[in-house]
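dumping this here so i dont lose it
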């Protein structure tokens, strides 16, 4: 029996895919097919959405980020990476071995936490100080 390890794959999809009808979901399904074709099993897929890139990649400044958590045999990594490199719709990818196993039940979506902001009252402008009256010397001396 071939031993499987947990891996996390994050890839950046070309921004033009988001404009198409089934662009990013179709690419994600294709990546899942590649994983299953090499003997792996997909545990989680999460489309993070479109984000601005830190630097241009293939003249693109934005891309759609996708996370895939999968269980793969070690020998399948080379073939999966070859498929990812050959895809023209994937700008970049990162495949790493996950250190923590995936929980049996996925965590519930967390609600965004709103931090109350302290109310800042505009400072009142200081009243202009009255100029001291100058004593005028009379020219009568």
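and the seq i came up w/
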């Amino acid at each position: 029996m071939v031993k499987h390890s947990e891996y996390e794959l994050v890839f950046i999809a070309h921004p033009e895919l988001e404009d198409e009808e089934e662009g990013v979901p179709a690419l994600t399904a294709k990546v899942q097919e590649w994983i299953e074709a090499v003997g792996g099993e997909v545990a989680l897929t999460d489309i993070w959405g479109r984000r601005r890139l830190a630097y241009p990649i293939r003249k693109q400044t934005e891309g759609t980020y996708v996370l895939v958590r999968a269980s793969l045999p070690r020998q399948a990594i080379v073939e999966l990476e070859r498929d990812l490199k050959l895809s023209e719709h994937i700008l970049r990818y990162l495949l790493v071995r996950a250190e923590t196993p995936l929980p049996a039940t996925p965590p519930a979506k967390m609600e965004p936490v709103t931090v109350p902001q302290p109310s800042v009252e505009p400072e009142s402008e200081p009243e202009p100080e009255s100029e001291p009256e100058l004593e005028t010397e009379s020219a009568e001396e």
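The beta strands are 4-13, 41-57, 60-73, 90-97.
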